[in-house]
Amino acid sequence: MTEHIKIIKVGGNIINSPAALQAFLKEFAALEGKKILVHGGGALATELAGRLGITQQMIDGRRVTDAETLKIVTMVYAGYVNKQVVSGLQSYGCNAIGICGADGHIITARRRTFPADFGFAGDIDRVDTDALSALLLHFDTVVVAPLTMDVSGQLLNTNADTIARSVAAALSAAAPCELIYTFEKNGVLQDVEQPDSVIPLLTAAHYQQLREEQRIFAGMLPKLDNAFLALREDVGSVYIGPADQLKALSEGRCGTKIIL
Question: Is CATH 3.40.1160.10 what the domain over 5-258 is classified as, yes or no?
Answer without folding.
Answer: yes
